[in-house]
Amino acid sequence: MIPMHRLFVALRPPEFLRDVLIDTMEGLDGARWQGDEQLHLTLRFVGEVDSPQANDLADALSEVRAGPFALQVRGVGHFARKGRASALWAAFEPSEGLAILERRVERACRAAGLPPETRKFVPHVTIARLNASSGPIDGWLARHGRLTAPEWPVERFVLYESQLAESGAVYTPVVQYRLVN
């Protein structure tokens, strides 16, 4: 059996921002709040790949050239599936630096033989996952709609491996890549 690796490329928020996000994690019945170690901004979900392709991806990502930039949290949002809220997240102001990095990561993924990403890039950090038993989200969205935090200086991105467990996904950093001008 060929070992498979479930991978994604992301930014890890600094501790001060994770603390701000954790402070929003209350007041909604049935929400499955993310743990500190699960908070990240996904640049590209890769999915399951074999070891050779994982190595090709790690090599391609090492060729990504982008400078450091800053991100600013601005409010919250939600995703819906079949008309029902499925996730709550922190939103970010548009950032040219982030857009450049996301495009270059996508280019590296394609260079490693991955199919193109078809979903629109929506920069966010997931705060909670929701299901049919979760309560109404309107109150939570109203309470945190003006969420802000100090600026986040982004200086690296990370290739993560995700392992699914009963308690939720466990994310392990595989390789960190520095952003340099």
In short:
This protein is an alpha+beta fold. Helices cover 23% and strands 39% of the residues. The protein has a single domain, classed as Cyclic Phosphodiesterase, Chain: A.
Structure description:
The chain is of the alpha+beta class and 181 residues long. The chain has a single domain (4-176), classed as Alpha-Beta Complex (Cyclic Phosphodiesterase, Chain: A). 23% of the residues lie in helices and 39% in strands. The chain is built from four helices and ten strands. It has helices at 15-22, 51-61, 96-111, 138-144; strands at residues 4-11, 32-33, 41-50, 69-71, 73-81, 84-92, 124-129, 152-154, 156-165, 168-178. It has a four-stranded antiparallel β-sheet, covered by helices on one side. Strands 2-7-6-5 form a four-stranded antiparallel β-sheet, with no helix packed on it. A two-stranded antiparallel sheet has the order 4-8. α2 crosses α3.
Main attributes of the structure:
single chain; RNA_CPDase; Cyclic Phosphodiesterase, Chain: A; 181 residues; alpha+beta; globular; hydrolase; 23% helix
